[in-house]
């Protein structure tokens, strides 16, 4: 296979998703999923027919939700496909570069490696903000800039003024891509209103997080029509299955959107509860502020804590191998019962009683 496979693919380290890692437990807090099952149902009798290339009803529904035009939207198989389509459409292998800012979502690096695209990596600062000095130094030498905002796994927003300053100076041959996978938990911080002002701004969205539809694999690229039309050229012929678009349409009905907003408030409540409790443990060094449905926690011995959680059936995400995140674990916000489970296990670890 080595002689058959291109070197960059043979050497590729695939993205290690929560399911791909395959840890088994009773409480899953490692993939930033909604802890509540979705009650939306669908029935179809026309599965013998191919779907629309882009569901017109879904486009209208998401345009209404995101306060944009249908001409500014491309429906994708999760935000992940959006990340890949942008590289496929705008980057030349072995020639162009993308820029991103670790610790952040690993798929930016994985997709670059898949397509043999060069990478300009500029770590974020110790305060989890962008290193504007170095970004501006190299900004004229990259094709795509990926910013996860709010950032995964740190959970924070980057300063709006810093992002605007990048938009104001990037050349017309560079796209700034804001990955807003977690924006629904703090929607007022979205940059969607800037799409019309900045022709090279691209926003990625998903229904996987706040909408609780991770299994659906439905996302959106928001940008100006020129960019959307280029992306359509490299998209699959029938990218969104009929059951997927049908369920997505139902999820964007006003009644369900209100239900999602209620769940978001519950996530915030559960998060505040969990953070307050975690701060009382001697094994916890620091709990980082988060505007998402997860928290990043620095323990004094994260490897020991990780294994202790695993022993008691609680699966969290190890982040300690990432730059600047020594001894850090990422914990998704679950139900209030699941938050109590986390606390109980830590009480057991420290030999305390509830």
Automatic annotation (TrEMBL):
Any one biological process term the GO annotation gives: L-histidine biosynthetic process
CDD domains per UniProt: AAT_like
Pathway annotation: Amino-acid biosynthesis; L-histidine biosynthesis; L-histidine from 5-phospho-alpha-D-ribose 1-diphosphate: step 7/9
Signal peptide, first to last residue: none
Aminotransferase class I/classII large domain segment(s): 44-345
SUPFAM superfamilies, sorted: PLP-dependent transferases
Any Pfam family the entry gives: Aminotran_1_2
EC number(s) on file: 2.6.1.9
One Gene Ontology MF term: pyridoxal phosphate binding
Catalysed reaction, written as an equation: L-histidinol phosphate + 2-oxoglutarate = 3-(imidazol-4-yl)-2-oxopropyl phosphate + L-glutamate
Alphabetical list of Gene3D superfamilies matching this protein: Aspartate Aminotransferase, domain 1 (3.90.1150.10), Type I PLP-dependent aspartate aminotransferase-like (Major domain) (3.40.640.10)
Record's keyword terms, sorted: Amino-acid biosynthesis, Aminotransferase, Histidine biosynthesis, Pyridoxal phosphate, Transferase
Cofactor(s) needed by this chain: pyridoxal 5'-phosphate
Matches recorded under InterPro entries: Aminotrans_II_pyridoxalP_BS (IPR001917), Aminotransferase_I/II_large (IPR004839), HisP_aminotrans (IPR005861), PyrdxlP-dep_Trfase (IPR015424), PyrdxlP-dep_Trfase_major (IPR015421), PyrdxlP-dep_Trfase_small (IPR015422)
Positions bearing N6-(pyridoxal phosphate)lysine: 209
Enzyme class, spelled out: transferase
Description of how the protein assembles with itself and partners: Homodimer.
Homology family: Belongs to the class-II pyridoxal-phosphate-dependent aminotransferase family. Histidinol-phosphate aminotransferase subfamily.
Protein name in UniProt: Histidinol-phosphate aminotransferase
Source organism of the structure: Buchnera aphidicola
């Amino acid at each position: 296979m080595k002689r058959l496979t291109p070197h960059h693919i043979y050497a590729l380290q695939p993205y290690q998703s929560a399911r791909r890692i395959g840890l088994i437990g009773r409480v899953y807090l490692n993939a930033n999923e909604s802890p509540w099952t979705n009650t939306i149902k669908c029935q179809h009798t026309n599965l013998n027919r191919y779907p629309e290339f882009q569901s017109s009803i879904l486009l209208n529904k998401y345009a209404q939700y995101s306060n944009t035009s249908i001409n500014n939207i491309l429906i994708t198989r999760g935000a992940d496909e959006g990340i890949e389509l942008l590289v496929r459409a705008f980057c030349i292998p072995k020639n162009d570069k993308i820029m991103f800012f670790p610790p952040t979502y690993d798929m930016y690096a994985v997709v670059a490696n898949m397509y043999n695209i060069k990478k300009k990596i500029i770590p974020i600062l110790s305060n989890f903000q962008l290193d504007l000095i170095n970004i501006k130094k190299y900004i004229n030498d990259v094709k795509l800039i990926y910013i996860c905002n709010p950032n995964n796994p740190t959970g924070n927003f980057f300063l709006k003024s810093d992002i605007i300053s990048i938009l104001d100076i990037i050349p017309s041959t560079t796209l700034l891509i804001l990955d807003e996978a977690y924006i629904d938990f703090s929607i007022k911080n979205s940059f969607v209103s800037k799409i019309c002002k900045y022709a090279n701004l691209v926003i990625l969205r998903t229904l996987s997080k706040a909408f609780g539809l991770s299994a659906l694999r439905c996302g959106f690229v928001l940008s100006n029509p020129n960019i959307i039309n280029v992306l359509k050229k490299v998209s699959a012929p029938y990218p969104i299955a009929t059951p997927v678009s049908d369920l997505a349409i139902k999820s964007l009905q006003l009644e369900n959107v209100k239900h999602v907003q209620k769940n978001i408030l519950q996530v915030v409540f559960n998060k505040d509860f969990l953070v307050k409790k975690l701060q009382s443990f001697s094994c916890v060094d620091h709990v980082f502020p988060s505007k998402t449905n997860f928290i990043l926690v620095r323990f004094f011995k994260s490897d020991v804590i990780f294994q202790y959680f695993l022993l008691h059936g609680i699966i969290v995400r190890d982040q300690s191998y990432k730059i600047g995140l020594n001894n850090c674990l990422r914990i998704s916000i679950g139900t209030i019962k699941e938050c109590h489970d986390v606390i109980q296990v830590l009480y057991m670890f420290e030999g305390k009683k509830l």
